[in-house]
């Protein structure tokens, strides 16, 4: 039994590790990407942003992980990865790409 199962009243929060987040990035992106920004607090990773070239010339995609919570950079009610699509440096669209639910990643 895990500690949470032994004590259901414990305030355990599932937080993805950096390795888990990178694994989801690799699944979503399917090619090389570069890390742009990484921020951590006492609980661990709360922001990780990466970028990868798009499928056509002038396209760039930015993938941004944010852990549920409120931070100096902003807040979010669910832990998820959002993708923003850029053409010639201008954002043209974006969407939620994956969400962390009950300790597991769901690709959207």
The radius of gyration over CA amounts to 15 Å
Widest sheet: strand ordering: 1-2-3-6-7-8
The total beta strand count reads 8
Show unreliable segments: 1-10
General form: globular
What is the average per-residue confidence, as pLDDT, rounded to a whole number? Answer: 90
Q: Provide the domain count.
A: 1
The percentage helix is 10-25%
Order of helices and strands: HHEEEEEEEE
Please count the helical segments: 2
Kindly describe this structure.
There is one protein chain. The longest helix has 12 residues. This protein has one domain. With 108 residues, the chain is mainly beta. The N terminus is likely disordered. It has a six-stranded antiparallel sheet, with helices on one face. Strands 4-5 form a two-stranded antiparallel ribbon.
Put the structure in a nutshell.
The chain has 108 residues and is mainly beta. It has one domain.
Structural features:
disordered N terminus; 2 helices; mainly beta
What is the topological layout?
Blueprint: H1 3-6, H2 18-29, E1 34-41, E2 44-53, E3 59-66, E4 69-71, E5 74-76, E6 80-87, E7 90-101, E8 104-107
Antiparallel strand pairs: 1-2, 2-3, 3-6, 4-5, 6-7, 7-8
């Amino acid at each position: 039994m895990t500690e949470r199962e032994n004590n259901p009243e414990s305030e355990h929060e599932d937080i993805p590790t950096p390795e888990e987040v990178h694994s989801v990035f690799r699944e979503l992106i399917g090619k090389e990407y570069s890390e742009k920004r990484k921020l951590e607090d006492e609980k661990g990773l709360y922001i990780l942003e990466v970028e990868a070239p798009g499928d056509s010339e002038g396209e760039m995609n930015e993938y941004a992980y944010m852990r549920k919570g409120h931070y100096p950079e902003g807040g979010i009610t669910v832990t998820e990865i959002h993708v923003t699509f850029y053409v010639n440096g201008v954002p043209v669209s974006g969407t939620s790409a994956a969400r962390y639910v009950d300790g597991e990643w769901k690709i959207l």
